[in-house]
Amino acid sequence: MRNIYLKSGLGDETYGPPFIFEEDKMPTLNSANQEAQEGIFSSIDDLLAKTLIEPQSIDIVIVTCGSFSPSPSLSSLIVNHYKLRSDVKTYNLSGMGCSSGVISIDFAARVLRGSREVQNALVVITESITLNWYNGDNRSMLVTNCIFRVGCAAALISNNPNLFQDAKMELVHSLRTHHGEDDSAYKAAFQEEDDKGITGVSLTKDLIRVAGMNLRQHIKILAPHVLPMTQLANYAYSMIMTILSQGKSKPVVPDFTKAFDHICIHTGGKAVIDQVGRVLNLSDQVTEPAKMCLNRFGNTSSSLVFYELAYFEAKGRVKKGDKMWMIAFGTGFKVGSLVWKWIQDSKQDSGNPWNDCIDNYPLKVW
């Protein structure tokens, strides 16, 4: 496992679940609940303090946690802890992997667009490693122990026009694509038992190819909605030439940096970041936040793109009017995109997770 870790791109300051630091190192339901509650409550407390939103003003609660689904649910935990209204609508997403953070924001936006009666949606994006720690010796399952780390994010999504000027960003487009009809995509990351009956999540060698293939399919749908006309014209021309040449001519990859000022790339692992960079022809400068996020926090699963968002904020790189693209992959196999427009310049935030280390990044060697 050490050899896998040394090649992972993770640094020495990532966060692990509490049970790892206990004497017996036994993952229990209590330690899983402790992991979930510490992340959820601290994230929500910080969010409510910054937005000055009262818990009683929350109309919807959406919680996504891919592999930990206790009873009562995590959304019920939040309702109980913050004493939310009895008519609050709650949703739990599970089993959707690292894309579920992007998906949950898209879900909240769709609910808010379809109703005038609800205005404020609390979205909590987390993962629990404790009960999914793999204690076997299957190499493809040991990878998850090496790259997945503790993390959580909370966001308030609103359709209340009175809150517009106080908001950070406006969601201008979102896209979700599902590629589960293909067996290799469906099984690229799969929870199963090894030959000794120990449960783990297997990350197959086909995962990187699947990510690249489905990313190409995803951007074909996304491109017409976000690219400037010059890029669309070049892309359309190359597609026509590909058809006319019967595949001898390859379509050009659109330059997405012409559409976005900042890109938050799925921090699934070193190979995933490199693959996205190759498919989209991105420079090292564009992939820097993803690489640094992987080094500092590891793969925090569904919340990972929000740690990248925090990196941009801590560096003071975001300005009013900038467009930001978040893209994430998930089991199944899913690809999700969020396109944001910044309403105001980024500000120094006391709750930014990069505050204690941002001056050490970017690293010269990764």
From TrEMBL:
InterPro entries: 3-ktacl-CoA_syn, ACP_syn_III_C, FAE1_typ3_polyketide_synth, Thiolase-like. It comes from the Eukaryota. Its EC number is 2.3.1.199. The keyword Nucleus does not apply. GO terms for molecular function: fatty acid elongase activity. Residues 260-342 form the Beta-ketoacyl-[acyl-carrier-protein] synthase III C-terminal domain. Keywords: Acyltransferase, Transferase. One of its GO terms (biological process) is fatty acid biosynthetic process. Signal peptide: none annotated. Residues 2-241 form the FAE domain. It catalyses: a very-long-chain acyl-CoA + malonyl-CoA + H(+) = a very-long-chain 3-oxoacyl-CoA + CO2 + CoA. One of its GO terms (cellular component) is membrane. Pathway: Lipid metabolism; fatty acid biosynthesis. PANTHER family: 3-KETOACYL-COA SYNTHASE. Belongs to the thiolase-like superfamily. Chalcone/stilbene synthases family. This is very-long-chain 3-oxoacyl-CoA synthase. It comes from Nicotiana attenuata. The lineage of its organism: Eukaryota, Viridiplantae, Streptophyta, Embryophyta, Tracheophyta.
